[in-house]
TrEMBL record:
<dbReference type="InterPro" id="IPR000331">
    <property type="entry name" value="Rap/Ran_GAP_dom"/>
</dbReference>
<feature type="compositionally biased region" description="Basic and acidic residues">
    <location>
        <begin position="1"/>
        <end position="10"/>
    </location>
</feature>
<dbReference type="GO" id="GO:0005634">
    <property type="term" value="C:nucleus"/>
</dbReference>
<feature type="region of interest" description="Disordered">
    <location>
        <begin position="1"/>
        <end position="20"/>
    </location>
</feature>
<dbReference type="InterPro" id="IPR027107">
    <property type="entry name" value="Tuberin/Ral-act_asu"/>
</dbReference>
<protein>
    <recommendedName>
        <fullName>Rap-GAP domain-containing protein</fullName>
    </recommendedName>
</protein>
<dbReference type="GO" id="GO:0051056">
    <property type="term" value="P:regulation of small GTPase mediated signal transduction"/>
</dbReference>
<feature type="domain" description="Rap-GAP">
    <location>
        <begin position="1"/>
        <end position="131"/>
    </location>
</feature>
<dbReference type="Pfam" id="PF02145">
    <property type="entry name" value="Rap_GAP"/>
</dbReference>
<dbReference type="InterPro" id="IPR035974">
    <property type="entry name" value="Rap/Ran-GAP_sf"/>
</dbReference>
<keyword id="KW-0343">GTPase activation</keyword>
<dbReference type="GO" id="GO:0005096">
    <property type="term" value="F:GTPase activator activity"/>
</dbReference>
Length: 148
């Protein structure tokens, strides 16, 4: 699972810089799970970040120094997950852990739902596959080779 932060991406000054900036941002929004932190009372538009998937939106809004309102929006068909669901008030002492765990569980539920489209792999298996591919691409004949 990767968490892109669009506001921390560099902005290019030249036309080629703008293209580079655009290319870096092209995948933002094309994720299973979106976490949105909002400080206003306006309703969050679920189409703000268009993309191919966008199955789960976790919207977090501070109420005061001790509490946050969370809203979890889920597309139909996604298997249930938690610990956060629907609309809840969450203590500031557990908001970070609750959102992180909900993101991980939501991402897993979405992978299961979309397994025919994107495939499903356990994270450690996928990491090993990527490491092996990288080793095969970068290794010279004299260097070590990974077992296939």
């Amino acid at each position: 699972m990767m968490i892109p932060e669009g506001d921390k991406r560099p902005k290019g000054g030249s036309s080629s810089g703008n293209f580079t900036s655009m290319m870096k941002k092209r995948h933002i929004g094309n994720d299973f799970v979106h976490v949105v932190f909002k400080e206003c009372d306006e309703e969050y538009d679920l189409q703000t970040l268009p993309g191919q998937f966008n199955d789960v939106h976790i919207v977090i809004q501070p109420l005061n120094d001790l509490e946050y309102r969370t809203e979890v929006h889920v597309k139909p068909g996604i298997p249930p997950f938690g610990p956060l669901y629907g609309r809840q008030i969450v203590s500031s002492s557990v908001i970070s852990e609750s959102v992180r765990l909900t993101c991980l569980n939501a991402n897993l539920a979405c992978q299961v739902f979309h397994q025919d489209l994107v495939g499903f792999a356990i994270n450690c298996e996928e990491r090993l596959k990527q490491i092996k591919q990288l080793g095969l691409r970068l290794a010279t004949p004299d260097e070590w080779k990974l077992d296939e």
